[in-house]
Specification:
This is Peptidase M15. By secondary structure, this protein is of the alpha+beta class. The protein has five helices and four strands, in the order ααβααβαββ. The N terminus is likely disordered.
Length: about 180
């Protein structure tokens, strides 16, 4: 079992998911209550490097647990992109709070401080991936297509330093100004 502190030392996929805490007491004859491992899941939303998903692969929570309006917009955009010869894929979408925490903590280690990490990785409290309201698109050709055409579907690039990150924020076919990075 990996603890939250030790999880960064685990090779992805090599650690067992966190175990549920001991059951609480229950009334006679009832099953004990348990908090499942999803409460602390540090893998929910992870894909192996180089792996992408179809925007129509709703059986995978990364896609299927996106906000329904965002998912519909991405699917509509993917159909239009395909008509233009562009294959739109998802390399990140919905994430658990635990996985987002893990990404943030990895960012702190990589960039040397919380302040530096915040420019590149949102905290679990601020990431729209945790609520299913953000999606990362691949490959670069699809990013470029979506930057040029996404507003027609309500989709906008949010951060200047992340051409792959899109949210459903266009109003009347217009996207808000880009934020320089995840700190705003």
């Amino acid at each position: 079992m990996c603890t939250l502190v030790a999880v960064s030392a685990c090779v992805i996929g090599a650690c067992a998911p966190p175990e549920a805490p001991p059951p609480s007491t229950s009334a006679a004859g009832q099953e004990p209550l348990r908090i499942g491992p999803a409460a602390q899941d540090t893998l929910g939303g992870w894909l192996p490097d180089g792996t992408t998903l179809s925007p129509f692969d709703v059986s995978n929570p990364i896609v299927g647990w996106l906000d329904p309006d965002l998912l519909a917009a991405v699917q509509d955009a993917a159909k239009a992109a395909a008509a233009d010869g562009v294959d739109m894929r998802i390399n990140s979408g919905w994430r658990t709070i635990g996985f987002q925490r893990r990404l943030f903590e990895d960012g702190v280690r990589s960039y040397g401080s919380i302040e530096a990490a915040r420019k590149f990785v949102a905290s679990p409290q601020t990431s729209n991936h945790v609520t299913g309201k953000a999606v990362d698109i691949a490959p670069v050709a699809a990013d470029r297509w979506l930057i040029a055409n996404g507003r027609k579907f309500g989709l906008c690039q949010i951060f200047a330093n992340e051409i792959w990150h899109f949210e459903l924020v266009a109003v009347d076919g217009r996207c808000p100004p880009l934020k320089p990075n995840a700190t705003g």
